[in-house]
Amino acid sequence: MHRRTALLAALPWPWWAHAAEPGGPAALADGALRIATAWQRPATGETEGRHCVAVLQVHWAEGRVQVLAEHTLPSRAHGLLARPDGGCVVVADRPGRWLMLLDAQGNVAQRLSLEAERPPRTLNGHVEAGTDGAWLYTTETDPATGAGWLSVRDPQTLVRVAQFESHGIDPHQLLPGPDAADPTLMVANGGIARDALGRKLPTPMAPALVQLDARTGALRGRWTLPDPQLSLRHMAWNTAWNGVSKAPSTADADSPPLRLGLALQAEHAALQARATAPVLAVWQAAPAAPLQGEERAGAARLTLQGAGAAARLLGGGYAGDIAAAPGGGFVLSAQKQGRALWWHPPRPEDLTPVAQVTEPCGLLPLPEGGGVALSAGRGLARWHLDEAPRMLPWPALLAPDNHWVALARA
Question: How many distinct structural domains can be found in the chain?
Answer without folding.
Answer: 1
